[in-house]
Amino acid sequence: MSVESTFEFPTIIDEDIFRASQLMGLPDNAFYGVDGSDPRQDVLKRMDSIDVAACPGSGKTTLLVAKLAILAEKWKHNTRGICVVSHTNAARREIEKHLGNTAVGQRLLSYPHYIGTIHGFVNEFLALPLLRSLGCSGTRFDTDISGRKLLKLSGGGKNVPNYLYRRFGNDASRISAVCHAHYVGENLDIRLKAGKVDVPLKRANKSDAFKRIDEWKKAILKEGFASYEDTFAYGYCALKRYPVIAEILRGRFPLLFIDEAQDNSKEQSGILSRIFMEGDDAVIRQRFGDDNQAIYDFQDAEEAVTDRFPGSNKVALPNSYRFSQSIADIADPLGVLPYGLKGLGPKKNFISDAQFEKHTIFLFEKGSAEKVIDAYGGLLLETFSDFELHGDGFVATAVGQVHKPPGEDANHKFPHHIGHYWPNYDPALAKNDPIPQTFIQYVFAGKAKSDLKDESHSMVEKVAEGFLRLSDFTTGEKSPVRPKRQHRHIIQVLESLHDAREEYLDLIACLIIKKELPTIETWNEHWCKRVRRVGEAIAGAPLAPEADSFLIWSDTPDSVSTPAIAEKSRHNLFRYREDGREVFIQAGSIHSVKGQTHTATLVLDTFFHKHNLESLLPWLTGKKRGWVESAGKQQADRLKLHYVAMTRPTHLLCLAMSRACLDERSIEALRDRGWSLLEVRSDGSTF
Q: Does the N-terminal peptide bond of residue 112 adopt cis geometry, omega within 30 degrees of 0?
């Protein structure tokens, strides 16, 4: 018997929607539209299993939070709750933003409900309980630490069976494969991958390679660590050993919401379907997403092939409140399945009316590529007033599909990556929540987050995270648990170590209150020694030699002050100045900006098998629309990524392409599509 037929779900009416809008500080017609035709009102009322295909800027997460608020107010069950899972904590952040001070918000964020990431869900309800049953309590899933320990046990990758020597032809590939070795599937098989070489090791085959790596992984698990990628394998293993877990979870969560459903991998979709949808007691499931933005299968995850999103019971949300029709017309053909985007935004009309003009393609020669972002900065100054440039909510970005340089053996196509446009770009700091490779990068990443959010808490937590990462390089035993509030945890750890506690607080005060960032001189002469002492105090043991590389100074030179050129940035913020005016441009990968809204976006052409924007020229000129199977998966991935990039901005969309890839016919076709074209000279001027 299905949960749907035995569980009484609340009925949602118009009055509930109006009340939720008021609670969230939205207009009464927020989910109805001016003419009452907004399809989101129907999604709020639906209480059956549906897939909501939502275009960029359709207010998908706000819609989900509104529905959760309505349900929480009408929920009458103390031990059965709503489960919301996604790849990020976007829904949780929206709840905290809109409902954080309300009783409804508090109810949603506490038992019996669960709102969090898919990894967090599998971790909490499957993987960690299984490991505790096996005598492994407090396991921490950390690929970096697990990888370092695997590398040490493998003798730097040298103590692997001959089979792996043959499969991974060089030291770098073999080391990478060993460091990222992880379990897969319910039998805890092992997967090793480096580049294009993918080696599955089956437990049932009992090969020497499997036995040896399995022994290393078990040894690391006893120390309290596992790879982040092990999470789902332990989850599947738990379901195999204890099938009753799925029944218990379906009873606990009769209603499931999946946000960003298009990004679920084969592994993730499979485990969620197995828990919630298989059998006669399947729950009500509502999935939200946009298949045109399914871009995370780029990161070595297999795309879901069964139970794909969206299914046949689909509701489409084609109205975007982010951008105007001019951007909608440019971006819509790049959708794998075009919506027929309707641009009903932006909500905020700037003085310049920039949303109606100046979408620009910058054309460059090889000698002028490094002047493209300058030209973009100049256009921003020309387009927006100082009040707008420095006002609340203004964000300008420059993004590319490929943001890391290729390996030494790779063909170096120009332009290949973001560094060809900006040599000082640092890929390690490009993520929304970057994982830096040195302590000083933690400092600069924290500064970037603090600047963007205009508050100091982000920097304190990022620096505290750097100290805890440093304490991992210890020669002694320690707890593998990573606290949520890292600064508070460090204060507690150092409570009886007065000298170290004062030294830690002095460092924080220097960064936050005095706003004194380290330079290479002050780091080598003063900071490094103090940071090491605090790290050892937190660890309660001397640091291992591996800590030395974590404590080296990263090459982040001081800014130059010459007008009209970019300054070298410590956190990938490109600063453009001209005639006493300035604008900041955040650079990063397309992956790093997914889900974000920008005022202006520059999409840089990069190289992945082909030059991406050049390859998409038929879609940009209007000759092609959508994707057909004959175009190949690689082109589908390229379309999805650049669809994501081109649907970020509210007002201004720009591209950067090599002049050599366009003939006069293409140029005319682009102009007919509404683009302005500017050629960038090596001196930075445009014509």
A: yes
- Strand, coil or helix: what is 125? helix
State both tokens at 355: 């949303």
Contact 393, 582 (CB under 8 A): no
What pLDDT sits at residue 220? 92
In this prediction, residue 632 carries a pLDDT of: 86
Identify the pLDDT of residue 477.
47
The bridge status of strand 197-201 relative to strand 189-194 is antiparallel
Whether residue 538 has pLDDT greater than 80: yes
Q: What is the DSSP letter of 240?
A: H
Angle at 645 between CA 359 and CA 630, to 5 degrees: 105
Query: What's the Cα-to-Cα distance from 96 to each of 26, 387, 687, rounded to whole Å?
Result: 15, 29, 48
Contact (Cβ atoms closer than 8 angstroms) between residue 587 and residue 399: yes
d(CA 217, CA 406): 30
pLDDT digits (tens, 9 = 90+) for 281-306: 899 999 999 988 887 543 445 655 66
pTM exceeds 0.85 for this model: no
Q: How far apart are the two ends of the chain, measured CA to CA in Å? A: 70
Residue among 70, 104, 111, 68 at smallest CA distance from 86: 68
Residue 367's H or E segment, with its range, is: none
Q: For the chain, what percent of residues have pLDDT higher than 90? A: 50
Tell me the residue type at 635. Q
Q: Is 626 exposed, middle or buried (0-12, 13-18, 19+ CB in 10 A)?
A: middle
pLDDT range class, residue 434, cuts 50, 70, 90: low
- CA 7 to the chain's CA centroid: 36
Alpha-carbon distance 329 to 650, whole Å?
Answer: 13
Distance of alpha carbon 366 from alpha carbon 355, whole angstroms: 30
The structure tokens listed for 79 are 């031990």
Which residue bears the tokens 């099938």?
A: 243
Give the Cα separation of 608 and 637 in Å (integer). 11
The answer for residues whose C-beta is within 8 angstroms of residue 590's C-beta and 6 or more apart is: 295, 399, 400, 401, 603, 641, 642, 644, 645
Give the tens place of pLDDT for each residue, 227-252: 989 999 999 999 999 999 999 999 99
What phi and psi, each to the nearest 5 degrees, are found at residue 151? -65, -40
According to DSSP, residue 524 is labeled I
Q: Is 191 helix (H, G, I), strand (E, B) or coil?
A: strand
Q: Could you tell me how many residues make up the chain?
A: 687
CB 238 within 8 A of CB 129: yes
pLDDT digits (tens, 9 = 90+) for 499-528: 888 889 888 888 877 778 888 888 988 889
Residue 375 pLDDT? 96
Judge whether 478 and 465 are in contact, CB under 8 Å: no
Cα Rg of the chain, angstroms: 26
CA neighbor of 83 nearest in space, from 282, 281, 257: 257
Report the pLDDT averaged over residues 177-199: 90
Yes or no: say if 502 and 435 are a contact pair by the CB < 8 Å rule: no
Short-list 64, 370, 82, 416, CA closest to 249: 82
658 SS3 class: strand
- With a pLDDT cut of 70, the percent of the chain lying above it is 89
Residue 179 clears pLDDT 70, i.e. is over it: yes
Using CA atoms, how far apart are residues 674 and 343, in angstroms rounded to an integer? Answer: 15
